[in-house]
Write a structure and sequence with these properties.
Helix 1 links the parallel strand 1 and strand 2. By secondary structure, the protein is α/β, with parallel strands linked by helices. Helix content is about 40%, strand content about 25%. The chain has one domain: Rossmann fold (3-Layer(aba) Sandwich). The chain is globular, with a radius of gyration of 16 Å. The structure holds 5-O-phosphono-beta-D-ribofuranosylamine (GRF). 5-O-phosphono-beta-D-ribofuranosylamine binds next to helix 1 and strand 5.
């Protein structure tokens, strides 16, 4: 029997994508286990979600590290110790630097709530709505040192002409919760 792949999820906030990925693993839809959560906000809801699912968590306060390189070295060591195969960023609000990318580059993916390369960076959905776009979307891409600029793996368009941002977030999350697990399945099969 082939060994199950080992996933890490990095998140800073609510963690609905974390939950969707864990649920898909637990249901056998993703042939992998989420073995660790990495979180830079110890009080975030995602930490509680991880505890409920028994997922080991590295939660830290970034400013307590002497430098970003020290912080990323600690994270990469933690990933090594837990034999992580693939890192899934899901609302992790930090740009990764070469310290982590030199050790895990090509094995880190991110989900972003826009049709990249449009609306890279923070507040993508709000900015797209302010701009008046009629087709929103979700992108999953490899992570490099740019902000939401790595090679695109999967995308889905979400037509929306209303003005209710909460409704739009709901539509986007529903797509994310389906597209992220499905894309992880695809990537693991290709590896
Ligand atoms: C998602 O919309 C994702 O696209 C973005 O951050 C959000 C995280 O939401 N990168 P959640 O914490 O998974 O609910």
């Amino acid at each position: 029997m082939t060994k199950k792949k080992r996933l890490a999820v990095f998140a800073s906030g609510t963690g609905s994508n974390f939950e969707a990925i864990v649920n898909a693993c637990e249901a056998g839809k993703i042939p992998a286990d989420v073995v660790v959560l990495v979180c830079d906000k110890p009080g975030a809801l995602v930490v509680e979600r991880a505890a409920r699912h028994g997922v080991k968590t590295l939660a830290f306060v970034p400013k307590l590290f002497p430098s970003k390189a020290d912080m990323e070295t600690a994270i990469a060591d933690f990933l090594d110790e837990n034999e992580v195969d693939l890192v899934c960023l899901a609302g992790y609000m930090r740009i990764l630097s070469s310290t982590l990318l030199s050790r895990y580059g090509g094995r880190i993916i991110n989900i972003h709530p826009s049709l990249l390369p449009a609306f890279q960076g923070a507040r993508a959905v709000e900015r797209a709505m302010e701009y008046g776009v009629k087709v929103f979307g979700v992108t999953i891409h490899y992570v490099d040192e740019t902000v939401d600029g790595g090679r695109i793996i999967a995308q889905r368009a979400i037509p929306y002409e209303g003005e209710d941002i909460d409704e739009l977030f709901g539509l986007i999350h529903a797509v994310e919760h389906e597209l992220y697990p499905a894309t992880i399945v695809r990537l693991l099969a290709e590896r």
